[in-house]
Write a structure and sequence with these properties.
Helix content is about 30%, strand content about 25%. It has eleven helices and 17 strands. It has helices at about 15-35, 50-55, 65-75, 90-95, 105-120, 180-195, 215-230, 240-245, 275, 280, 370-379; strands spanning about 10-15, 35, 40, 60, 80, 100-105, 125-130, 165-170, 200-205, 235-240, 250-260, 265-270, 300-305, 315-320, 330-335, 355, 365. It has a nine-stranded parallel sheet with strand order 2-10-9-8-7-6-5-4-3. Strands 1, 11, 12, 13, 14, 15, 16 and 17 form an eight-stranded mixed sheet that branches. Helix 7 links the parallel strand 9 (about 200-205) and strand 10 (about 235-240).
């Protein structure tokens, strides 16, 4: 049990024991299915925790030159890199920091592959494909929606792949099940099977939430084993982000004030939804709060409001079994993935500290933030 009193408020706190539990499961899937599972930085990039990750996995995936550099310098291995578009200014550094580079279009491949070839570096190149199928219902997170800017459709590929394309990358999922992957594979094989003999690796992207409690891990392993049986020459890669940090930590906050307007009580906190939990407003979804129910059944019902000046910086409603008090701690569950990578300092709001509750029961503070951090971002 985390001792919150050992951390400043507000604070993102990762639980090392829960992280290791997720990592152990992910490693078992990789070993039993004979695939490689790598960490996607777009969901989680707390580099001070990378030494723990390196005990279980060996590579990561990047979507920008900064993420690729983080992979090389802090994760200790060159990245599997994909970007919707590379630039001539960034590409030399992308090559230096990457073992795999996936291109989003044939025009990008034609433009930059000669640089890869002439570099003499050991880099395997691929193309992102679009099977035109995804069960992701929220449009904001659906990479295969009509008109998407991601990937090449089967009709846009030549019968014979150009020299230098050694792999396919496909991303169709978001917090999805193995059964969604099973249905997706049907579409991938129907549309792209004639090219699979021409490539060396197939990257099935992210969104495979294998550490979720109700996820059928055994079905995933059988599914991947079956795919390997059908295409034994292919190296299979998965690059989830959320699965690694799923339910591994919290965001702690405090009640600063309680206001009422037309019968609606709002507990104003020392954190912000728009600054510190942006997916709550973008998705949107209502996060779990420790000790509260996500309904208005009472007896004490509150909105939770952020401390920025954005009118929509609130969520609700939550029911508590007691009246909230100023200074009371409010704990948001599962706030480690897609939070610290997306936070901002809008309105000059104080950024939460970042720490870890270690497996031997100690508080390890990674970083606290100050006015200078805000000032330096605004220059």
């Amino acid at each position: 049990m985390i001792d919150f009193t050992q951390f400043p408020s507000p604070c993102y706190i990762m639980d090392e024991s829960l992280l290791r539990k997720n990592l152990s499961l992910i490693k078992r899937v990789a070993d039993e299915a004979d695939v490689e599972i790598i960490l996607a930085f777009k969901s989680f990039a707390l580099w001070r925790s990378f030494p723990i990750f390196r005990e279980y996995i060996h590579h990561s995936t990047a979507s920008s030159v900064y993420e690729a550099r983080l992979a090389l310098e802090e994760f200790g291995s060159r990245a599997h890199t994909y970007s919707p578009a590379y630039t001539e200014a960034d590409f030399p550094e992308i090559m230096r920091c990457s073992s795999h580079i996936t291109f989003n279009s044939m025009t990008q491949f034609s433009r930059f592959y000669p640089m890869v070839k002439d570099s003499g570096m050991d880099i395997s190149c691929g193309i992102r494909i679009n099977p035109e199928y995804s069960e992701v219902e929220t449009e904001l997170y659906n990479p295969c929606a009509p008109g998407t800017r991601f990937g090449v459709m089967a009709e846009q590929l030549p019968e014979r792949l150009p020299e230098g394309i050694e792999g396919f990358h496909c991303h169709c999922h978001c917090e999805s099940s193995s059964y969604e992957l099973e249905r997706t594979l049907v579409h991938i094989e129907e549309k792209f099977s004639k090219w699979l003999s021409q490539i060396k690796w197939l990257n099935l992207g992210g969104g495979h939430l294998m550490t979720r409690k109700d996820y059928d891990v055994e079905h995933l392993i059988r599914l991947l084993q079956g795919l390997k049986t059908r295409y034994p020459h292919l190296r299979l890669i998965l690059e989830p982000g959320s699965a690694f940090a799923w339910q591994t930590g919290v965001l702690t906050s405090e009640v600063v004030d309680i206001v009422e307007n037309r019968g609606i009580q709002t507990a104003i906190l020392n954190v912000s939804f728009t600054c510190h939990m942006p997916d709550c407003l973008e998705m949107p979804y209502q996060p779990a709060v420790r000790g509260a129910r996500m309904d208005g059944s009472g007896p004490y019902v509150y909105r939770l409001g952020g401390n920025s000046c954005l009118s929509g910086d609130y969520m609700g409603v939550w029911s508590f079994d007691h009246p909230l008090q100023v200074g009371e701690r409010i704990v948001f569950e599962d706030m480690i993935h897609y939070t610290t990578v997306k936070t901002n300092m809008f309105n000059g709001i104080h950024h939460p500290a970042i720490g870890m509750w270690t497996i031997d029961g100690h508080a390890r503070l990674f970083r606290e933030f100050s006015y200078e951090d805000y000032r330096d971002r605004m220059c």
